Structure formats: C-alpha cells, structure tokens
C-alpha cells in the first residue's frame, strides 16, 4: 500500500519525483480515448526504470505459447496487446547534455491528471550535470474528439544559462513488449519518412498483419514566434525524426507543439494509412493545441454529465470513484463492436489486453447505466460474433453438436490462455456470458436481442453445460467434475457450487428465452433452430432433467452452500489470523500451500449469491456471507466489490464501506502492490457497482427499477445518474433523505425502498429514508 497521491476531487496529483514509484505512476497517469492509449512515459529520454507503453485498440499479437509441459488442447499462442510506436518522444539536449531525469537533479516535480478536462500535465525543474537549470511544463492528451490523434505542448525555460539547445521530436516503432515469450520483436518495418516539421513510420505486426502508421507534425515556438526549423531529417528502420538546433537564453522559453496520429488497418485501407495520418494531422494542427484542449474539455464535460458520481464529505473517496470512471471512459467508448475491455485497459501489458469474463460480470452494468443501450449491446454482439470460434474451441476439447465454450482469454474469439487449470477448467466464464444477456435484457427491456442474437449464444452455451455434466450413480444427481471456480486458489475440484448453479441456471434461462422468442418472434426461432439444428424434444428434455437433478454441495450443519465437494475437509481458519508477513499469500506462500488452504482469492459462492440474489432468502445470503467473507483474501481486484454489494444488501454498512474503500483506491494507493503492471480497469467498474448497486441499492426486479439507498456514515451525501430504458434518473442521497430527479420527458414508475412511486418526467421526488 502506498500513500503518495495527493487527495483532490478532480485531479490525481503527485508531487516530488521518486524513481522507485515511476512505474506505478506511469500506470496511474495513463491516458486513453478508446482507440488508443498510453502509459505516462516521459516525453524526454529517461534512462531510469520505465515500462514503455503505447497501445492501439484491436491490434494484438499471437505470441507463441510458452509452457513447461505441453498438454493437448492448449492454444498455440497467447494474444498480447502490442506495445506500439512511441509517439510522445521529444529528446532534448542542452549544451550537448541530454535532459534525462535519471541523471539530472530534479526539483518541483509535479504530475497532475486532470480528469475533469482529460489531460495530463507534468512540470519540474532539472539541474543538469553541466549545471544548467531548466524548467519544463508538459501537457498532453489523447483526443476524444479526434480519436486517432493526440497532442503535446512541451515548454522548456532556461533558468540560469544561455546555451545551444537541440530538440528531436520523433516516432519510434522499434519497441518491445516486456512480456514477450521469446524476446521477439513483434513489429516488421514497412517504411518511414521524415519531412520538414513532420514524420511518419509504418510498421506491420508479424503473423496478424495489422498495419499501423504513426505520424507526427510539430512546430517550435521561441520568444513568441514560430521557428523556421531547418531540421536534420532522420530516417532509420522503424524510426523517423527531426533534429532542430537553436540557442536558448536565460529566461527564455521554447515551446514544442507535437501532434500525433495512430492510424491502423483495422479502420483504414493499408495503402491509405500515411495519407489518412497526414489528413488527420493537418486537421488537428490547424485547430491548434489550445482549441483541441478546449474541445477535449467540452467532450469530457459531456461524459461527466452522464457518468459522474459525486461524493460529499470524503475527498479520498471522491477522487477514487472519479479516477475509476475516468479510466473506464478512457478505455471503452462502445462505438466499435470489435473492441472490448482488457483488464488493464490501456495502462499496461499484463493480461494481454484481452477480453475476460470481467466484461460480462463486472463492466457491463457501468456501460449499460451511463451510456445509451447500444454501447452495452455492442459488448454482447462482440460475443455473438465469436460464437463460431467458441464452438470450435469446445470441439478442440472434445465437445460436439454446437456446444460452445467461450474462451477465458481472447482477442478474436479463440482461446489463448494456456494454463490447464484455467483454460480447461475455469468454465464458469461461459455462464457469465449467458448472464450478461439476461442482465442486458432485464435492464434495457431490449428483448428483441434474444431473437436477433442472444438465443443462439444461449443454445451453444447450454449445449456445452449439458455435455460437461455427468450422471453420478453414487449421488443420483448430475455432477460437474474437475473444475476451477472463480476462486483460482483451488483447482480441479468437483462440484464447484457456483459453476453448477450457473450451469443449471443457464439451461433454465435458455428454455425461458426460447419460449419468449417462440411467442414473440416465431420467425427468429425457426431461423435459429434451423441454423443450429436444434432437436427440440431431445435437447429440451435432457436440459430439464439436468435442471431438476443438478447436485449442489451443501452443509446441513452450517446451512451454507459449499464452494466444492471437499471444502469442509480443509482447515477452516480466518484471514484475520494470518500473520501480516504472509499477506498477500500469492506473493508469500508456495502455490501448493495456497491450493490446500481454505483461503479464497475472490468471491465464489458469493459471486453466485450476488448474481442470483432473488433466488435466495436474505438469511441464506447472510449465513453464506458470514461463512465465506472471513476466509476471503481478496487477492483478485474483482473481489471486494461483490462483497461490498452483498454487505450493503445485508445492512452491514461498515463492512460494505470497508470493502468499497479497498476497491475504490486500489490503484491510487497501490493496494495490492501491482499497479506498476497497469491499473485494474475492469475492477473499476466493480467500484461503480459498489456505489450504485450497493449503497444506492439499484436493482431490476419484475421489470421495475428498484432503489434502496443508504448513506455511508463517513459521507455527507452522494449522487449518481443512471440511464434506465432511456430515462435518465439522478439519485441524490443526503442526510436529509433522497431526491430522485427524472431528467427525461417520460414518467417512470420505480420501487423505492419497497414501495411503488412514480417519478414524473422533468420532475423531482423527495423521499425520507
Ligand atoms: C481473476 C480472474 C480475472 C482475471 C482478469 C484474475 O486474477 O482471478 O477472475 O478474470 O484476473 O481480471
């Protein structure tokens, strides 16, 4: 845990330069716009420790699998988000010495991520080894208006000298991925060119053949007038730059305006890439930095109108939730159904930038509630488009007849995770994809999705479950053997309650959805059943048998569901009794010891009780919560939010708040000591859920929006907005009660604390607690 980020409601602020924290800060201060993103690497050269990261959405590399012992069924590769061209780089030399914060004496270092207006600012004073002192102020952003571009303003002031200055803005495609399995470079050189005031480099990925052209255009202003550049043009393989030499006198400022474009073959014809890049650069440079920055601020203001959560009386909490919302909006905009949300967004290489069950289980509600429904629909369509690959994925493991197993980790629908216990066993992910269809249709009311796309996906997943279970003579029940549940701290267990439950639930939901489509869109049912060759009698009867006879491990004595058959054989001890040095156990214990322990990485039985809350009594949920929460180490960032929501529902306000704090500032305070790898973007959506679904008690039951808010005692108030079926509601909770404002024209009937009320269009309702 670290505590160096200064608390502020709208800004993330770091003061003082600590090279030890550089990687963590590079993650936290990352920028993105849905199309591209980057870690907060410095513009000037830096010879200290750094993880270079520039990412272009959708561009990945299938890195050949590296495992100790090959197992049949392993995918051949692990898809990686690619470190792409460094487009922020500006080398500076003063009197022949490079400006490098690892070598200079640094003072007044300050980094600010302005979340309100969407830009990053960094300022410092550096005393070079030759005694020359410069003051630098750098501002940059990834534009959310012109989303293939970014802009930088870099100001250098000479404090105590007059000397020659050399400036080299560049594009460098000669980059590596730190997590490359075989230390390979993933980019092939295509071509590069440097011109007076601009340059571009095009490279293509090995194997996947994505082409990306990264280009820059820049201007240098000295003493208020634009310099005639007369640059030295540098063109090397995968690299292009301009070198400009001038003289800077004491007290003078030189400002470099650098505009960059990243144009990928995902969105443009390969032959057009450099001309599109030049067009984009001409467009943004003619707007100029200040105008672009103003447009950026206006566009972010609109995003905040839709998605802000305001917390009164707790600056740390306010900063935490805004940081999470900011990162989510930087990562995914929902405009492109080919894109998804990597667990680290654009903030690092870890988890390969690929799609996990995190999207369906954690991210969907945020996008569903803060944007129009097409954004969430695109996330679902992404999986529909991967259905055929999911069927092939299941076939590779021996399943047949259209059974679909969605991958644990994917870029293009193919599984690319290669640890047997996850690839083959962590099959609960399939259930989350079915659950998301349910979650989407109940929230948006868009049931036409079932006939259009959803039912086909549900049939594929249900066929998988029906083949994955087997009949146990001993138990006279259907069982599911050899699985890993959400708790990855046990593998190859039998009858993980959560997996069994979500499997049977999927079968049930598929049958219900089939009935719905039969009734409402019979043509769709005909089309789908023909396409998937559905045997109504045989398959539906088999599914019903499984639903009625699924085995759920249960402890009669404690009256709790068992995480798996053997759970009670473990030594049941509590996290509070662990020594401090043992935590986190995944960094201090052998894997063998972890697997045999009762400690739970993340919500497992409780994940099921959170998803299917309506199917259990409050007493049941409480008993299970009280049994499992003390054994949960929350070493996955996905965990505390689920516990927080359940604690809120159970009226355990202190616990709900404690768990909320763990997720809200997870990266800002580097809670798990791993933010240097990137931020936990998908769990940020969980934090949002902890406020809206937990403290705000937002839920959908029987086609009605429910609100059941309470005010955490540490706060004076909070408010959030949700877009429910195209009605925008603002919920404002304070010590005096709750105000629900309907910002749309149409009336909305909701259930407030169990009682029906109507919130008229363009009106406000005030309620006591
Ligand atoms: C969690 C998984 C999650 C993955 C990516 C792992 O640590 O156990 O549930 O999908 O991280 O966030």
From TrEMBL:
Residues 698-759 form the Glycoside hydrolase family 65 C-terminal domain. InterPro entries: 6-hairpin_glycosidase_sf (IPR008928), 6hp_glycosidase-like_sf (IPR012341), Gal_mutarotase_sf_dom (IPR011013), GH65_N (IPR037018), Glyco_hydro_65_C (IPR005194), Glyco_hydro_65_M (IPR005195), Glyco_hydro_65_N (IPR005196), Malt_Pase/Glycosyl_Hdrlase (IPR017045). This is Glycoside hydrolase family 65 protein. Residues 13-265 form the Glycoside hydrolase family 65 N-terminal domain. Belongs to the glycosyl hydrolase 65 family. It holds the Pfam family Glyco_hydro_65N. It comes from Marinigracilibium pacificum. Residues 322-689 form the Glycoside hydrolase family 65 central catalytic domain. Keywords: Hydrolase.
């Amino acid at each position: 845990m670290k505590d160096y980020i200064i608390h502020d409601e709208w800004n993330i602020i770091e003061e003082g330069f600590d090279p030890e924290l550089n990687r963590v800060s590079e993650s936290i201060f990352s920028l993105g716009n849905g199309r591209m993103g980057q870690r907060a690497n410095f513009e000037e050269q830096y010879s200290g420790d750094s993880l270079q990261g520039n990412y272009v959405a959708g561009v990945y590399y299938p890195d050949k699998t590296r495992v100790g012992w090959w197992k049949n069924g392993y995918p051949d590769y692990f898809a990686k988000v690619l470190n792409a061209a460094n487009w922020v780089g500006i080398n500076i030399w003063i009197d022949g010495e490079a400006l490098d914060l690892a070598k200079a004496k640094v003072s007044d270092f300050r980094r600010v991520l302005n979340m309100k207006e969407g830009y990053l600012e960094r300022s410092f004073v550096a005393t070079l080894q030759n005694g020359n002192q410069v003051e630098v102020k750098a501002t940059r952003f990834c534009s959310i208006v012109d989303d293939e571009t970014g802009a930088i303003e870099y100001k250098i002031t000479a404090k105590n000298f007059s000397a020659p200055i050399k400036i080299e803005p560049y594009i460098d495609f000669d980059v590596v991925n730190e997590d490359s399995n075989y230390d390979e470079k993933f980019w092939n050189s295509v071509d590069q060119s440097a011109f007076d005031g601009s340059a571009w480099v095009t490279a293509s990925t090995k194997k996947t053949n994505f082409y990306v052209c990264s280009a820059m255009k820049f201007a240098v202003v000295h003493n208020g007038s634009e310099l005639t550049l007369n640059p030295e043009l540098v063109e090397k393989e995968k690299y292009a730059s301009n070198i400009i030499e001038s003289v800077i006198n004491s007290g003078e400022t030189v400002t470099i305006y650098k505009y960059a474009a990243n144009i990928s073959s995902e969105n443009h014809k390969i032959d057009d890439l450099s001309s599109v890049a030049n067009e984009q650069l001409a467009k943004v440079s003619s707007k100029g930095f200040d105008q672009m920055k103003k447009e950026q601020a206006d566009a972010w203001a609109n995003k905040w109108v839709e998605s802000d959560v305001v917390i009164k009386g707790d600056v740390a909490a306010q900063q935490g939730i805004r940081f999470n919302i900011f990162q989510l909006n930087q990562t995914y905009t929902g405009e492109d159904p080919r894109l998804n949300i990597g667990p680290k967004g654009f903030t690092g290489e870890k988890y390969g930038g690929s799609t996990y069950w995190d999207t369906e289980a954690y991210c969907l509600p945020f996008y569903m509630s803060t944007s129009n429904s097409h954004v969430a629909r695109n996330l679902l369509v992404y999986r529909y488009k991967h259905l055929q690959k999911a069927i092939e994925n299941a076939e590779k493991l021996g399943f047949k007849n259209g059974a679909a197993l969605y991958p644990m980790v994917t870029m293009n629908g193919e599984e690319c995770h290669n640890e047997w216990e996850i690839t083959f066993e962590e099959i609960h992910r399939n259930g989350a994809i079915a659950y998301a269809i349910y979650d989407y249709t109940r929230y948006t009311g868009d049931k036409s999705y079932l006939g259009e796309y959803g039912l086909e996906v549900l049939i594929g997943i249900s066929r998988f479950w029906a083949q994955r279970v087997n009949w146990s003579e001993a138990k006279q029940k259907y069982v599911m053997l050899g699985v890993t549940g959400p708790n990855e701290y046990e593998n190859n267990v039998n009858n993980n309650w959560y997996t069994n439950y979500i499997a049977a639930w999927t079968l049930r939901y598929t049958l219900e959805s089939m009935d719905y489509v039969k009734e409402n869109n019979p043509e769709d049912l005909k089309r789908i059943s023909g396409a998937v060759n559905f045997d109504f009698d045989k398959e539906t009867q088999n599914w019903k048998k499984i639903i009625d006879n699924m085995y759920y491990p249960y402890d009669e004595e404690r009256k709790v569901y068992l995480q798996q058959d053997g759970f009670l054989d473990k030594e049941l001890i509590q996290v509070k009794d662990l020594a401090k040095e043992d935590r986190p156990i995944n960094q201090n214990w052998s894997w063998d010891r972890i697997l045999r322990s009762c400690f739970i990485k993340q919500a497992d039985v409780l994940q099921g009780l959170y998803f299917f809350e309506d199917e259990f009594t409050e007493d049941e949920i409480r008993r299970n919560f009280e049994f499992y929460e003390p054994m949960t180490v929350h070493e996955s960032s996905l965990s505390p939010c689920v516990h927080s929501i359940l604690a809120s529902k159970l009226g355990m306000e202190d616990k709900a708040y404690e768990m909320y704090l763990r997720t809200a500032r997870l990266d800002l305070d580097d809670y798990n000591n791993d933010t240097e790898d990137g931020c936990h973007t998908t769990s940020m959506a969980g934090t949002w859920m902890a406020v809206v679904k937990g403290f705000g008690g937002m839920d959908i039951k029987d086609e009605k929006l429910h609100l059941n808010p309470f005010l955490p005692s540490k706060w004076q108030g909070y408010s959030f907005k949700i877009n429910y079926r195209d009605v925008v509601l603002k919920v404002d909770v304070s010590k005096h009660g709750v105000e629900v404002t309907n910002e749309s024209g149409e009336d909305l009937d909701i259930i407030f604390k169990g009682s029906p009320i109507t919130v008229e269009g363009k009106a406000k309702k005030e309620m006591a607690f």
